[in-house]
Amino acid sequence: MEVIHTISAFRQARAQQGQLGLVPTMGYLHAGHLSLVECAGSECTAVAVSIFVNPTQFGPNEDFADYPRDLERDLNLLRTAGVDLVFVPDVAEIYPEGFSSAIEVTGVTEMLEGVARPSHFRGVATVVGKLFNIIQPTCAYFGQKDAQQAVVIRKMVRDLNMPVEVIVAPTVREPDGLALSSRNWYLTPTEREAATVLHRALTHAQQQYTAGVRDGAALRATMRAILDAEPLARTEYVSAADPLTLRELDQVGERGALLSMAVRIGKTRLIDNVILK
Ligand code: AMP
């Protein structure tokens, strides 16, 4: 496994590879990231992982400085997983002095996460666009866990004719349903227990859907009621939206729906979602 810190060295290493699968990450890897690596390995001849805590996707009062980092541990996990190339640039390599460009996807970035985190998707789209230009992957793998991010990346790739196939893989969960996230490490044991409420709320709404409920407001109310019953949870939003436009639905139709939520448990902001088909 080659660990590469500069763009020029990465371009040289990439030129030796044919079909390449890319898994972009911010590190502090868990089984969710590794499932994307496995998926990439099963579909591509070589796998690249990027580890970069991207400052431009964090708001001024968010956790950029505190975001967990452990490069040695990450590299050991990636070595065991059989990854070929790891790209670990520092901030100045990606954003050198004078950097002043951005990729802005409009529409699908304006709701859900975009409300609480107004510059988040501009940071995500810009860094992912840059990683695509540097790494030139054949395929790029993203998690359903960040559902809106996946929609935004797909839109960017289509709108800007980027020659990359985007693959979205299912959310990996703990046995009690909590979606794996690097931010779960912030939770105290009591908060960790309370954090199962996101999955419980989603599962309950999903069961209602299976039982025939199609009313968007009813599905949102179900999720909100379950979240409200957990004293440690403060709900930021619950949503039952069209899976492509992300607009809130009155009725779930043929395209199904994306049920999603952002909830604060103590100081930790957690998101989760399920797709209704
Ligand atoms: P991050 O390091 O949080 O930026 O995540 C890197 C990639 O891993 C993103 O495409 C995420 O959607 C994906 N990911 C994060 N958590 C999970 C999970 N629990 N299951 C599947 N994919 C995940």
Account of the 3D structure:
The protein has helices spanning 7-15, 31-43, 71-80, 91-94, 113-116, 120-135, 147-159, 189-194, 197-210, 216-228; strands spanning 2-4, 20-25, 46-51, 85-87, 139-143, 165-169, 233-241, 257-265, 268-276. The protein is of the alpha/beta class and 277 residues long. The strands form two sheets. It has a six-stranded parallel sheet with strand order 1-4-3-2-5-6, sandwiched between helices. A three-stranded antiparallel sheet has the order 7-8-9. Helix 6 packs across helix 7. The protein is globular. The mean pLDDT is 98. The protein binds adenosine monophosphate. Adenosine monophosphate (AMP) binds at residues 25-26, 32-33, 35-36, 142-143, 145-146, 171-172, 179-182.
- Strand residue percentage: 15-25%
What sequence of helices (H) and strands (E) makes up the elements? EHEHEHEHHHEHEHHHEEE
Low-confidence stretches: none
Write down how many β-strands occur, each being a DSSP E stretch of 2 or more residues.
Answer: 9
Order of strands in the sheet with most strands: 1-4-3-2-5-6
Name the bound molecules: adenosine monophosphate
Q: Compute the number of structural domains.
A: 2
Q: Rough shape?
A: globular
Proportion of helical residues: 25-40%
What's the mean pLDDT score?
98
Main beta sheet: strand number and arrangement?
6 strands, parallel
